[in-house]
Amino acid sequence: MKISRRDLARGLAATGAAAAASSLTYAQPPVGEKKSHAAWTQVFPGVWRARIGEPERITPVTVRAVPPLESAFAHLPAVAMPPISAIEAQQTERGCLLQLPLQPEEEIYGLGLQLLSFAQRGKKKTVRVNADPRGDTGDTHAPVPFFVTTNGIGIFVDTARYATFYFGDVRHKPSQPEASTARASLDPNYTQSDTATEQAAITIEVPRAKGVDVYLFAGPTTLDAVRRYNIFSGGGVVPPEWGLGFWYRADAHSTTKSALALAQEFRDRNIPCDVLGLEPGWQTHAYSCTFVWEPSRFSDPKAFVDAATQLDYKVNLWEHAFTHPASPVFAPLEPHAGDYGVWGGLVPDLVGAPARTVFGDYHGNALIDLGISGFKLDECDNSDYTGGWSFPEHSRFPSGVDGEQMHNLFGLGYQRAIWDQFLKRRQPTYNLVRSSGALAAPYPFVLYSDLYQHRDFIRALVNSGFSGLLWCPEVRDASSEEDLIRRLQSVIFSPLAMVNGWYIQSPPWKQLDRKKNNAGELLPDWEALEARCREIIGWRMSLVPYLKAAFARYAEDGTPPFRALALEDAGDNSLRDVDDEYWMGDRIIVAPLFAGEAERKIVLPEGKWHDFWTGEIVSSREFTVPHTREHIPVYIASGSVMPWAAVGPHTGAPERNKLIVRVYGDGAKSFEWHAGINHLMLKWSDGSGLIEQSGSAYSKSDYSVTEWKHFE
Ligand code: GAL
């Protein structure tokens, strides 16, 4: 028998429970749930904070590694008043609710490394760390509770909770009856109303917290708001020059012999390479980790690292933080670990200093002092869709955080434990990490994923610039030659240029197919494909001086070296949804091609542009380019002076200081790079070029120009 709601109500009335039911339906908000307006207090130039209730003890700001880079705020325009008058706040039984105005046509970007969407207006997103962000829910390797709008406003909610952001899609209930519907409709109106054009609100729910600090970053431009956030984070990182070279990660089964043979092969075959990465097999146990060299593969680790160093490689080691009971660091770490295990290992409480010190010191003494230049910090994101291997949200840690907070802080704490060791040794480093979060701009770490959609990888690169993150769209195997070339072309124009060959014996250009590669069945014409890849890797080497300048700017005024077109020109509606093109540095726009596409559409900002490769002037702002294997579409602003270094086997090779300088149009945009006392300037005037350089502490400033190549 079916029981209707009415029957149920009658039944309740009969038992005297109707009053309870109605009081449930019409409950008044409990005391303390009243809405209030939290005022802004200025904390830095153009940065304000509103404190709502009683914030939690552990948040991204309270556990931050680096203080704000105060001196850099002077690079940004002064802003006298906060661009939003107040924030509406409410404490509820579920946590904290915040509300901010959203103007008609105001678009929103950010929330960390979003792989699946770009413009966020009208969407609901929960900032939760996840190793497999397969749905567009806000899940990501690097959730950051920071967003910017096209009205030049940045908002950072200082929480490690899984906060939910409703970007304009929360609607008030209707309060007045109407005589009839406006028009007959059989279809449900799923889209409700056009939230993009209405006055709306941004609603943010921070679960479980009794309070929260919200930071407001003023523009005036959207890019200025991001710059302020990056400066507040401590300023952008500058990687060592070798970090900007080419990286190759060898097969997980590598031994001393095979890894060195590969390193030698690259040198013999003129494939530039700076960093050689080892994958899980270097350890005696990898899931969980011992952090101890496996003697059957690496019997003399020091001799191995020395031999790689002799060949001018840096060695990078894969690992994750879950610590096996047989690891020498297990016993000292055990008191500083969470109450659950992962893969039979400890989860170090990396939010707390004791665990970071014990864990970090071991890495410093046993591995960095051996000559290791950096690490790949794997598996530090959560595992919701892949078997639940990670620790649960109800975990407890000695520092006082629970599993939810730890998930959103784990990658950051892990990076910090390792980074501290390099800082202590005054040793520059550049690393990989699979999870990051808020205030990460100064961290010498680049994100990567186990997912492998080229299109999503480019969107991630475009999005990374909104949140102080760096991203590597790594190359592994490929579905076709075209796929390999396209992916390699993209990764060359990214913060870290890497082929991750962890599951293939030979480089992918020798055999694209994973199975055949591991069976030793090479492509009949692999040398031709290798030659194409060699050329593309060479572009990376040539780009290094330009990339150095882009990163120097990141450190100086917080300008992200890789960023969306919409970030640079937020007022230009034609650029608002462009998530497959990006700025690299201050004069180049990259528009990757994807395998299988016959052509692609290009949109460029206002101004005069040249095709980077041919120098030809681009005649319109919107056009289509046909599929070409030769080059990745790249455009350079007219007037640019652009260094193009000689390739060489690795970034430290002296022959690389010879530059070809490409000059586009009138050459009015000089090239400049500063690093401490070192300075390089390339100028073009009256049809001739001029090189100026100073600084002696750093031999790389001894550049010479072999050719000035002018494209009218
Ligand atoms: C994955 C990682 C890969 C590779 C592999 C080794 O988690 O994303 O890049 O390192 O582990 O087991």
Automatic annotation (TrEMBL):
<feature type="domain" description="Glycosyl hydrolase family 31 C-terminal">
    <location>
        <begin position="558"/>
        <end position="641"/>
    </location>
</feature>
<dbReference type="InterPro" id="IPR025887">
    <property type="entry name" value="Glyco_hydro_31_N_dom"/>
</dbReference>
<keyword id="KW-0732">Signal</keyword>
<dbReference type="Pfam" id="PF01055">
    <property type="entry name" value="Glyco_hydro_31_2nd"/>
</dbReference>
<dbReference type="Pfam" id="PF21365">
    <property type="entry name" value="Glyco_hydro_31_3rd"/>
</dbReference>
<comment type="similarity">
    <text>Belongs to the glycosyl hydrolase 31 family.</text>
</comment>
<feature type="signal peptide">
    <location>
        <begin position="1"/>
        <end position="27"/>
    </location>
</feature>
<dbReference type="InterPro" id="IPR013780">
    <property type="entry name" value="Glyco_hydro_b"/>
</dbReference>
<feature type="compositionally biased region" description="Polar residues">
    <location>
        <begin position="177"/>
        <end position="193"/>
    </location>
</feature>
<feature type="domain" description="Glycoside hydrolase family 31 TIM barrel">
    <location>
        <begin position="238"/>
        <end position="547"/>
    </location>
</feature>
<dbReference type="InterPro" id="IPR011013">
    <property type="entry name" value="Gal_mutarotase_sf_dom"/>
</dbReference>
<dbReference type="InterPro" id="IPR000322">
    <property type="entry name" value="Glyco_hydro_31_TIM"/>
</dbReference>
<dbReference type="InterPro" id="IPR048395">
    <property type="entry name" value="Glyco_hydro_31_C"/>
</dbReference>
<keyword id="KW-0326">Glycosidase</keyword>
<dbReference type="InterPro" id="IPR051816">
    <property type="entry name" value="Glycosyl_Hydrolase_31"/>
</dbReference>
<protein>
    <submittedName>
        <fullName>TIM-barrel domain-containing protein</fullName>
    </submittedName>
</protein>
<dbReference type="Pfam" id="PF13802">
    <property type="entry name" value="Gal_mutarotas_2"/>
</dbReference>
<dbReference type="InterPro" id="IPR006311">
    <property type="entry name" value="TAT_signal"/>
</dbReference>
<dbReference type="InterPro" id="IPR017853">
    <property type="entry name" value="GH"/>
</dbReference>
<feature type="region of interest" description="Disordered">
    <location>
        <begin position="174"/>
        <end position="193"/>
    </location>
</feature>
<keyword id="KW-0378">Hydrolase</keyword>
<feature type="domain" description="Glycoside hydrolase family 31 N-terminal">
    <location>
        <begin position="98"/>
        <end position="165"/>
    </location>
</feature>
